[in-house]
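Q: Predict the bound structure with NDP.
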Amino acid sequence: MKTTVKALENSRQNLFIGGAFVAPASGNYIPSFDPTTGEPWYELAEADAADIDAAVRSAQTAFVNPAWRRMTQTDRGKLLQRLAQLVLEHADELAAIETRDNGKLIKEMRAQMRAMPDAYGYFAGMADKLLGDTIPVNKLDMLNFNLREAIGVVAMITPWNSPLMLLTGTLAPCLAIGNTVVIKPSEHASASTLALAELIVAAGFPPGVVNVVTGNGDSAGEALTRHSGIAKIVFTGSTATGRRIAQNAAANLIPCQMELGGKSPHVVFADVEMEHAVNGVVSGIFAAAGQSCVAGSRCFVEARIYDRFIEALVERTRRIRVGHPMQEDTDIGPLALSAQLSKVESYVASGVRQGARIAVGGKRPQSSDLTGGWYFEPTVMTDARNDMDFMSDEIFGPVVGVIPFSSEEEMTALANDTHYGLASGIWTKDIDRALRFARNVDAGTVWINTYRASSFMSANGGFKESGYGRRGGFDVMQEFSRVKNVVVDYSGTMQDPFVIRLR
Ligand code: NDP
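A: Predicted complex:
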């Protein structure tokens, strides 16, 4: 793979269209920044409407190209297996690229990259298992069946927090079925998707089956989601952008899959092992410096252990090591964008103005090694209420607000008091109570005595303003295929069209 961290340094990266890297029509490039220093480290092509049009046309051509359209399901599966193997071989390089681009921990990115090949393999295995149905229609000489087929060109827009992992859950099934794809990664973390494009060529996918257009969301992303050649949009990002994209999709009458933000409740009952629950809450909010859609950012603790829990949570939080993401002993790296850092600071300040108290953290770290980087201390806020801005809006940073509760009913009402419905967690030894929570909480995922444990084999997605559509599991194959009903009359006759027979 040419696109290693070293090869990218001070380089210019082009668009990937029709199986080749091409310069943008405008000749414009924009910098991508290293979050540990705030300095640019490479430039990516800024696609405009002409480039987007070229990418969509290339995907349309590839969709009907016999090299792809007439490829057998088994052969499509083999291509995905080959890609899985290449991703595995290059997992550490891909991880290093993502860490450099978005500042997430190298150890976490490595784990993600090494898990990804299994997901490609899982969907590769589904390529030849997508079945249609035969429908009995009360006509003895008639065969009525549903064909499941690819839908066409799918646009995929990904965020910067885990670009390749979030892409995999939709790209792999999409290709397994025979669709073609145009990907628009975030301008803040495009490098790993461009590197994946090289692996897609090496795996042997026909040109144009996968295209990558980089650039700004407001221009490149907007042009892609408005393009009339797109059959479906898969979007992962903020609720505000999702709403806008859904309007573009509506204008073209095409479906979308929306994986949006969250403000997930994380509940702790008094009957738990304190240490485990604290570890769960810490992992739920501070992993990836809180830049995770499922972050457990609202913590509800049973009142009779509240003080002890806060004490233990603060003590554990103080021991978190904020540092350079490439160091193996770092627990939390920087935020990915300087705007993200300002956003986190302003939400913490507004929380304090609205009456919350900073129990630990709440500021940039003082250490001289971290100067210039976009770091923020892991922060616990007490005296929080759901109506405070930092508790109702998604911050996407390392900030958790804690609220005590006295009864299960009160806790359920507090947990569901949000526009979002992505994830949730509960710590208790009482299985009845845990299962009641699973029933009553408005969230697409419920974790019981764990948090952030997810799999490409199960359905992931949100309710309410966290979006719609699911990724993962076999059902995702329905999302990327369409049903065509075929009716065959094999009676060898055709009735007089004006004779209506009553049954
Ligand atoms: P944004 O919504 O700002 O951006 C997401 C993607 O959309 C980026 O590629 C961005 O491009 C692009 N984009 C921005 N504006 C437009 C537009 N008008 N038309 C088309 N595309 C556009 O989200 P963030 O990048 O800030 O990502 C964080 C958000 O993503 C959080 O809300 C988080 O919860 C959510 N998320 C959800 C996940 C889930 O599975 N539910 C998983 C991960 C994140 P560019 O960056 O170049 O502007």
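A: The mean pLDDT is 96.
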